[in-house]
Target: Short-chain dehydrogenase
Amino acid sequence: MDVSCVVTGGARGIGRGIAEQMVARGARVVLTDLDGEAAARTAAEIGAAEGLAHDVRDPEAHRAVAASAARHGRLTAWFNNAGVGFDGTLAELSEEQVRTLVEVNLLGVLWGTRTAVGAFGDHGGDVVNTASLSGHGPVPGLSVYAATKAAVVSLTMSVQAETPRRVRVHALCPDGVATQMVADMRPDGLARALVQSGGRMLGVEEVATQAVALLGSRRVVRTLPAWRGGLMRASTLAPSLSQGATALFAAQGRRAGRS
Model:
């Protein structure tokens, strides 16, 4: 029997990379995006089974996507990858931007995870949530985005503990990735500088590879690269001291951006 999977936010970037790798593994991929035309075009380009318009903020839309995937084969994997990344301090972001960050990055993952866990049935499967390194510590200039990603990490750990052993829930937390989301950040903003402070930006293909590698594993949270995860988690032990470190990282990131 054919197996199917769902990749949200799959028209470009990390989502497209994941979809390409799942197609190569023989899965019948249902690729979704808010931009339905882009989803259909990408699906045709990479050989996915279907490309659908999908607003992840709508719980019913997730159920419709799950039904589409079931028509292509047994659903075994669901990648909650759709996300937005408006940069700016909490005071700078508009109310609409704050609401969109929370509804897409957090509620979208909640609805997707709940739908996937219910749709897997007795055979089980894997949910892979695209979180972020920012979910492990303070990231000024990305405070709301980081808060949503921290919530995704927490959600992943809790749902993994709730589900039967046949269902596995994972969160991938990459450092800065060379995607349009990062390219759209303000060039002179603190967020862009901090994202660039880790040195080489991660590539879409390597992040997608790590996301797909989580399938079938018992690994719940993976940071990429691992050393940045340890550094971020250490910063939470002394938040009052992190401001000085932030300034150093920002300066490093600005130098990297000029090179």
